[in-house]
Amino acid sequence: MVKVSEHTRQKILEISADEIRKHGFTATSLSVILKRCDISKGALYHHFTNKLELGYAVFEEIYTPEFLAMWQPAVSGNDPIESLVDFFQSMLTNLSCEDIVCGCPLNNLCQEMSGIDEGFRLRILNMQQQLNSLIATNLVRVSSQLRDDINFQQVAYFIISCFYGASNLSKGSKNKDLFSQVINELCAYIYHLRKQ
Amino acid sequence: MVKVSEHTRQKILEISADEIRKHGFTATSLSVILKRCDISKGALYHHFTNKLELGYAVFEEIYTPEFLAMWQPAVSGNDPIESLVDFFQSMLTNLSCEDIVCGCPLNNLCQEMSGIDEGFRLRILNMQQQLNSLIATNLVRVSSQLRDDINFQQVAYFIISCFYGASNLSKGSKNKDLFSQVINELCAYIYHLRKQ
DNA sequence: CTACATACCGACCAAGCGGTTTGTAAATGA
DNA sequence: TCATTTACAAACCGCTTGGTCGGTATGTAG
Asked: Among A77, A159, A164, A184, which is least packed by CB within 10 angstroms?
């Protein structure tokens, strides 16, 4: 049996996710969320104890599954190198300029909230470690095809860093071009992981 | 002849720079600055027309020269490749954990302010382009020693991205380790720019 | 029909924000 | 010496923020 109020809760989560994605957590105003949801403050505080808990719920119930689904093609398939490159190249073709400039919520929240709130920091750290493990173990699978001097964890973190940095860098220029350049260079780097 | 009030102005700038570095521009409170400077609101608004102009002044008079001085060793010297690697390696030894977790003000402000305020965005973009040019032209100088397939602008942006991403990534973990790993991998990448 | 929980409304609150205004002591130029 | 500007101090203002609280309509179980 599905509770009726679940619909309200979901709406709050989705709109909050959208606001936080666009403006960050701190700059997201509850009153804006209330207006967009067309509900009262009482409704929101019936479902969530405070703004921070709402933020955690958004992270766990919206961003986490979204993030895992997004990266899934990058860390599956027979050829991890090709999967990674395809994944990044598909970003170049599929993502709009606004998407890129808006950036990855995980990266944004990491920068904004890590120093302020431990709850956010640990959730973010956990996701980053998960992603790192996914990439690293996937590369290990085909280590025989790869160079001998590779530190898999280090390479995985390097790839994530480049992605983070690329989206940060393109925020200043407000266009896809910088992002494309960095991602292309990243793909060249990834190819070079193979035995020459 | 030096104006007496210049001392007050400098103090405001330096303390504001410190606050903005630690908490970002929006989260920096004027009242905190006033307390730390031990001055009144009247003093601050005598020297700066509003918070935004104070922010611009901090960027231009504190962050910009600091940034250029910081990167200078990376883009000078006889061997650009070695200079870059030395520069990054010296960060690993010289920077404290807090420094790393706090991150580069340019990167932080880029993420926080690019989407909010054009004045900040253009100043940041300008600095990034300057840095990119410095790195790229420095590499061009020794292009005969480097691989033939190098796109210098792209490589320069890639290096900056990795640096940005590394400091972002380490914010979540609150220690130097992740930063070190990414920087080490970046140095390996930089060495690989040379002809093999 | 009664009793109680759920789901929500909307007025209200204290605190903090950036910014304005009024006032004044000190420095400066004529 | 006197008028004027400089360099502040401090009270004040409107506004927004997250958060609380009393009330209420709608179920729902006994």
From this structure: A77
- Tell me if ipTM is over 0.90: yes
Contacts B111 to A, Cβ<8 Å: 103, 108, 111-112, 168, 171
* Segment B29-57 mean pLDDT: 97
Write down the pLDDT at residue B5: 77
How confident is the model at residue B1, as a pLDDT?
A: 37
Q: What stretches in chain A show pLDDT beneath 70? A: 1-4
Task: Report yes or no: B172 and A121 within 8 Å, Cβ to Cβ.
Answer: yes
- Pick from A13, A184, A189: which is nearest to A93 by CA? A184
In angstroms, rounded to a whole number, what is the distance separating the alpha carbons of residues A158 and A170?
Answer: 18
Task: Report the C-alpha gap between B164 and B133 in whole angstroms.
Answer: 17
pLDDT in tens, B91-149: 999 999 999 999 999 999 999 999 999 999 999 999 999 999 999 999 999 999 999 99
The three-point CA angle A152-A94-B159 to 5° equals: 45
User: What architecture is the B59-191 domain classified under in CATH?
Assistant: Orthogonal Bundle (1.10)
Q: What is the pLDDT of residue B196?
A: 82
B140 is near strand C: CB distance < 7 Å: no
The end-to-end CA distance of chain B, in Å, is 58
The residue among B122, B107, B117, B109 whose CA lies nearest residue B52 is: B117
Superfamily per CATH, domain A6-191? Tetracycline Repressor, domain 2 (1.10.357.10)
User: Which residue from B minimizes the CA distance to A189?
Assistant: B189
A4-9's contacts with Cβ under 8 Å and 24+ in sequence apart are A5/A46, A5/A47, A8/A37, A8/A39, A8/A43, A8/A47, A9/A47
- Does residue A62 contact residue A25 with C-beta atoms inside 8 Å? no
**C1' (C17) to CA (B48) span, angstroms:** 17
- What is the SS3 assignment for B4? coil
Task: Show me where the domains of chain B are located.
Answer: 59-191
